[in-house]
Design the sequence.
């Protein structure tokens, strides 16, 4: 009997491992397609934008190039061949780390992105930490006091937070904490004081979304038999929430965090511009204003790849934390 039990467990484990490998292969293949789509979108962006890239590259400082010079640069940049050939050559350069040269600074786009990415990642990481702490904590409080005054206040705060335009909230913070009180710097990159207001603006709507999902997930757990049975036995409610309900309810919130990071990267464009942070968000705005299309293509590629990798990481964490996900994948 014992040998049969061990053999049964071995076959179950072997089946679970095969399922995990099959799922990971499917996920990697889908991510490959997504990355291919991102690269195609970045390339098409350079094609559809108005103006001749060769002329833009030569027209720095008010210089007016001649048609012969433009034709020569077009051949040098490979713009005289069909679009599919251009895409293959461009993709080959990208895969070798060559994202082109910025029209505005004449520097490699790769080098400029490397210099700016740490600032955006630092801002995004701070906003993500604040989002996780606030979202989970506020959601738990609202669910624990469902229908009471605290819950109503939290829901009102969530609705207000989701309704506030980011640029308007940022200007309010600057007016109050910088101009009126003089506590925080209005712009620039430095220590933690320079990140307090940008992080607050970036994390506010994300925290509200996470808190709302945390509350609804906990309320769903409150209606399940295991929770009702534990409460009926006289178990402390808050202890039951922390030990049993929260681990089950937090899985959708973790999945949300992957999508939230994409929103934080996109929202950093506005925040970095308002607070004059030299990250990749403000770099994208400068590229748009200066019609610097290689820089804009580099921004699209980098943010897209980061979003895809984070989604893969979050999906893997959800797969490990939630047995129901593994069972669902096994049935597919």
Sequence:
């Amino acid at each position: 009997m014992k040998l049969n039990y061990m053999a049964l467990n071995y076959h179950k484990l072997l089946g679970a491992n095969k399922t995990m490998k099959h799922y990971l292969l499917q996920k990697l293949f889908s991510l490959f397609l997504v990355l291919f789509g991102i690269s195609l979108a970045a390339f098409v962006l350079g094609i559809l934008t108005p103006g001749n890239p060769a002329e833009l590259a030569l027209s720095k400082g008010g210089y007016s190039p001649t048609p012969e010079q433009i034709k020569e640069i077009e051949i040098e940049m490979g713009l005289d061949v069909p679009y599919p050939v251009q895409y293959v050559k461009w993709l080959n350069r990208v895969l070798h780390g060559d994202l082109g040269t910025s029209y505005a600074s004449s520097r490699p786009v790769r080098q400029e992105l490397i210099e700016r990415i740490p600032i955006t990642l630092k801002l995004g990481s701070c906003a993500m930490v604040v989002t996780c702490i606030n979202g989970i904590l506020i959601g738990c409080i609202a669910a624990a006091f469902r229908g009471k005054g605290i819950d109503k206040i939290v829901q009102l705060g969530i609705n207000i937070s989701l309704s506030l335009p980011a640029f308007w909230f940022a200007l309010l913070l600057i007016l109050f904490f910088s101009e009126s009180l003089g506590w925080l710097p209005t712009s620039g990159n430095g220590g933690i004081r320079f990140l307090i207001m940008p992080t607050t603006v970036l994390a506010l709507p994300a925290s509200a979304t996470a808190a709302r999902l945390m509350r609804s997930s906990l309320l769903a757990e409150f209606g399940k038999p295991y929770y009702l049975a534990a409460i009926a036995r006289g178990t402390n409610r808050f202890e039951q929430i922390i030990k049993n309900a929260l681990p089950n309810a937090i899985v959708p919130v973790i999945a949300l965090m992957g999508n939230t990071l994409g929103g934080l990267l996109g929202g950093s464009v506005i925040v970095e511009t308002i607070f004059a942070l030299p990250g990749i968000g403000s770099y994208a705005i400068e590229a748009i204003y200066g019609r610097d299309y290689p820089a804009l293509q580099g921004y699209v590629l980098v943010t897209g790849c980061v979003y895809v990798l984070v989604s893969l990481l979050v999906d893997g964490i959800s797969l490990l934390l939630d047995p129901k996900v593994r069972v669902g994948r096994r049935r597919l």
User: Anything to note?
Assistant: The two ends are 31 Å apart (CA to CA). Confidence is low (pLDDT under 50) at residues 1-14, 327-332.
